[in-house]
Design brief:
The protein is mostly helical. Helices cover about 75% and strands about 0% of the residues. The protein contains twelve helices and two strands, in the order βαααααααααααβα. Helix 2 crosses helix 9 and helix 3 (about 65-95) crosses helix 8. The protein is globular.
Length: about 325
């Protein structure tokens, strides 16, 4: 089938930037909440609060719920690989490795999407622009975070492995998530987070004994902000972009996480901008633009059909 092409719209680019900002929020907020809240308890509470917020949106918007029964197995699988597993692994991984290294590793999601597409699913075309974009974006992330951040590699094997596995799960989830394109993004996000919560809450009570903790006001505030903005809103935008620009374009937003940190530091905290950071910002911008320069406008029956046939069924 012939593939028509279109340029990514300005609104799509705006959502990519917003998603990049929201993807960067959980790192700092997780560190704050973990000062008095155990990792798994924090993850479970964050997902539960986000799911409740999204169900309020779904019901007040009067979104049709009839699709839930049909898509329940897919939502359960998506809840595991995009929520329960990676959120938990990142939370525990951040206990042993620094945030800069975690950001670099977790920003490599487009690399894994590219590899999975090339060797397995073939769900999206891998043209020269995209390959250059993936490489440029990853190089930009390393330059922004600082090469010294890579010195932690090998020192904390558990944390390193946890973040890498979480990143691979996120890449698979971005491909798998396109199978939910037929339902509204808010409903897909609410269903996914609810399934993730179902898996997380029992383990939380078994492992962390949450009723024996006394969270501080700062930790609770960080947890709430993380749930509403870093999880609920982020999930809706994520599913919206999966529908319009595909998995590789959506995950390219991850490259913006350290870039946003640099911009905030320079504009609000009066921090200096180094040449390495400037080059990193340029590389990240080039990478995201190259990945999204021309997206396939295939109907779901074609692009998604290829991925659906290659991905394991729930």
């Amino acid at each position: 089938m012939a593939v028509a092409s279109r340029q990514v719209s300005a609104s799509d680019y705006g959502l990519i930037v917003l998603l990049g900002i929201l993807l960067g929020i959980p790192y700092a907020l997780t560190k704050i909440s973990q000062t008095t809240i155990p990792p798994l308890t924090g993850v479970a509470a964050r997902v539960v609060l986000a799911a409740i917020a999204l169900w309020i949106v779904v019901f007040t918007s009067r979104i049709e719920l009839s699709a839930l029964k049909k898509y329940a197995p897919l939502l359960l699988l998506q809840g595991m690989i995009s929520c329960a597993v990676p959120y938990t692994l990142i939370a525990y991984g951040q206990l042993t490795i620094n945030s800069a290294l975690a950001a670099i590793l977790n920003s490599s999601t487009p690399v894994f999407v590219c590899l999975i597409s090339f060797f397995w699913t073939r769900h999206e075309p891998l043209n020269f622009n995209r390959l250059v974009g993936v490489a440029a974006g990853l190089a930009g992330v390393v330059m922004i975070a600082g090469v010294n951040a890579l010195h932690g590699i090998g020192n904390e094997i558990f944390g390193l492995a946890a973040i890498i596995v979480a990143t691979v799960c996120s890449a698979i989830a971005a491909i798998q998530g396109r199978r939910l394109n037929d339902i509204p993004p808010a409903l897909a996000a609410a269903g996914t987070l609810s399934c993730g919560a179902i898996a997380l809450v029992p383990f939380c009570f078994v492992i962390d004994a949450p009723f024996h903790t006394t969270p501080s006001a700062g930790s609770l505030t960080a947890l709430f902000v993380n749930a509403i903005f870093g999880t609920a809103l982020r999930s809706v935008i994520y599913f919206r972009l999966l529908r319009t620009i595909g998995s590789m374009g959506t995950t390219s937003a991850g490259y913006l996480k350290p870039a946003v940190g640099v911009i905030v530091g320079c504009t609000l905290l009066d921090e200096s901008l180094t040449w390495a950071a400037m080059l990193g910002l340029l590389a990240v911008s080039v990478g995201v633009a190259a990945i999204n320069k021309k997206q396939s406008s295939l109907l779901r029956q074609s692009v998604y059909g290829t991925a659906a046939s290659a991905m394991p069924r729930a």
